[in-house]
Amino acid sequence: MAQVIQDKIIDENLKWSQINQDVIRSMQAPGKAYWITFAVCVAMFLTAVAAEIYQYKVGMGAAGLNNPHMWDMYIATFVFWIGMSHAGTLLSAILHIIHAQWRKPIYRFAEAMTTFSLMTAGFFPMIHLGRVWNLYWVLPYVSDRGIWPNFRSPLVWDAFAISTYLSASALFLVIGMIPDLAILRDHTKGWRKKFYGILALGWRGDDRQWRNFRKTYMLMACFLIPLAISVHSIVSSDFAMSIMPGWHVTTFPPYFVAGALYSGCAAIMTLFICLRYFFHMEEYMTKNIMEKTTKLTFAIAMVWTYLNLIEFASTWYGHNIYDKEVLISKATGPYAVVFWTMIICGSVVPFTLCFQKLRRHMPTMFVVSLLLQLGMYVERWMIVAPTLSQAHQPHQWDVLWAPVVQWAIVFGSFGWFALLFLVFVKLFPSVSMYEVKELTFHLQHEAEEEKWLADQEKHATPEGAREKPVTGRPGLEGA
Amino acid sequence: MTQLALVIDLNVCVGCHACVTSCKEWNTSGQAGPMPDDNPYGADPSGVFFNRVQTYEVGSFPHTETVHFPKSCLHCEDPPCVPVCPTGASHKREADGIVLVDYDKCIGCKYCSWACPYGAREFDEHSQVMKKCTLCVDRIYDQTLPEQERKPACVMACPANARIFGDIHDPDSQASQMIREQQGYALMPELGTQPANHYLPRHIRRGSDDSA
């Protein structure tokens, strides 16, 4: 039975007090580099605000949005951010229910990424509205003006899907943090103690609380998985429900979900490396965990590539002349550079993840993760722009390269996301302390068991071999 | 059910744009107005026109011909722009089959123009709402006008009588008769939108295999 000892996910001899100290250290006293990054992010965000004010005053023409280019980069960026949000759910919920231990040190920041990328994505449907002040008309509320949303519209589905997903993922993030917040309450002073005291909701870490906590967490995880899948399917139906060439495709929902998981995993790789270096989390964000994340990313990249090729093939061999023309124009037309960037970054670059040496080389992985994200961003843009540039009617044919206003708003959205993330890492633990403790506890006992079994084999007695050491319950008394 | 529509005879359209200008004149001063007309003589003019004439060169040299193709909203019987509207501003009237936008309800999300495969939707960058051909709904029911003038402005203006207005569900209407007799066709019927506006194909072919 001697199981091959896997490479350790993290060092099992990590002291629990050490874990507390390391995580609390990462949350205190922001340095100069932090404030400079913070200022840059604020500047980026303010650029977007200025661009939005300008667009609001002048009209959508400022962003170049009129027939035939109606949403352009705004919708592409919206899909990108929504996609990003899926990786958090993958790591925290899907890997939770299949008991993948390696997710434990890294799922917290991925979950935060989910919430923040949704908070970023939510802006884009608002920004592209002509009369943004009437935004609330897509919500069903009783009024005497006879305004009631049209529930057949995918935009209304979007509004419901995103608000549900945002509230559910934020709740999941907060619930999962409760034991950690209690640790912070017990280890901090001043306003932080009060702040974490309120958020910890009177957590004492007794059996009943743990039991309820585990049930709630599992329930939320089970709720979140179908929700995440449905959200991106709904986003894909924004496109698939229209009869435009290149969009009216039945494979769009799975294609979008695969793309979402893909770009999300790439984003996790980027943030993983950032946290590892800037917050000195080498002991938690280990190279072994990075390897597992990259393998997962590679698998998803291949699924995405497959779905992409299938879409091309069904268009190529299909009889729809409009679809085929759009496909040809993607590969050879004015957007060909972008198309081939997508193919190279999305389907070729992931093959670097096949090599163990590269997988364990963090600077390479950082560059690769950024390339993958670039590939996935332009993929979204390639869905939007070529179809609008070459719709059914020749009079609609037009090529648009986004004007400055669009770029500024898209650029600012990255600033806004980074800003939220920077605030998060200083206010909340970006590594789950109690789950890392559980992990070390499990690993210790696994090691003990291995040792015991090895001893038994040495001086084997038939009766003794059947007994196993009591492994005990996982470390519940972390808080 | 009544389905009002335009029947456009491509044999006689000379591409004079009288329908375009009269449409703009009527609608810019009506309920849909004002309709912007930015930078009209510049390099990159933009503006709202409910009716546009597209001119195509068809065939290959020397057997070519010029086809003028007037196009406005086709008032589809199954319009793809209606179900996608989040606020219900885009709607199809049951009484006469006209597809309209309620400008008060429109939030300018432009989703309908995504959904329309004919590119018939026109976004007004000044009032930030979507607009489109109304089939001159504020004219065809106007009791103060003499009965023979209760037609869309484009129909009234056409010097060649290329535009016929009527109910295509009424087999006795002039519009239905012309569709029947001259093999009138709908634009891109394969999309299943069932456009109400019809085109009468060119019959005179000057040695070319291609025709509009």
Briefly, what is this?
The complex is a heterodimer of chains A (479) and B (212). With 479 residues, chain A is mostly helical. Chain A contains 16 helices and no strands.
CATH topology of chain A, by name, is Formate dehydrogenase/DMSO reductase fold
Question: Count of DSSP E strands of chain B?
Answer: 11
What share of the residues of chain B lie within helices? 10-25%
Q: Which radius of gyration of chain B do the C-alpha atoms yield?
A: 17 Å
Report the structural category of chain A. Answer: mainly alpha
Number of domains of chain A: 1
In angstroms, what is the radius of gyration of chain A?
25 Å
Describe this structure in words.
The complex is a heterodimer of chains A (479) and B (212). With 479 residues, chain A is mostly helical. In chain A, 68% of the residues lie in helices and 0% in strands. Chain A has a single domain (30-439), classed as Formate dehydrogenase/DMSO reductase fold. Chain A has helices spanning 16-26, 32-58, 73-97, 107-121, 123-127, 154-187, 190-199, 207-240, 252-278, 287-317, 321-332, 336-348, 356-359, 362-389, 404-427, 433-458. In chain A, helix 3 (73-97) crosses helix 14 (362-389). Chain A is globular, with a radius of gyration of 25 Å. Chain A starts with 15 loop residues before the first helix and ends in a 21-residue tail after the last helix. Mean pLDDT of chain A is 87; it is low at 1-5 and 475-479. Chain B has one domain: 2-Layer Sandwich (Alpha-Beta Plaits), CATH 3.30.70.20. Chain B contains five helices and eleven strands; from the N terminus they run βαββββββαββααβαβ. In chain B, the strands form five sheets. In chain B, strands 10-1-11 form a three-stranded mixed sheet, with helices on one face. Chain B has a two-stranded antiparallel ribbon with strand order 2-3. In chain B, strands 4-5 form a two-stranded antiparallel sheet. Chain B starts with a strand and ends in a 12-residue tail after the last strand. At the A-B interface, helix 6 of A face strand 4 and helix 2 of B.
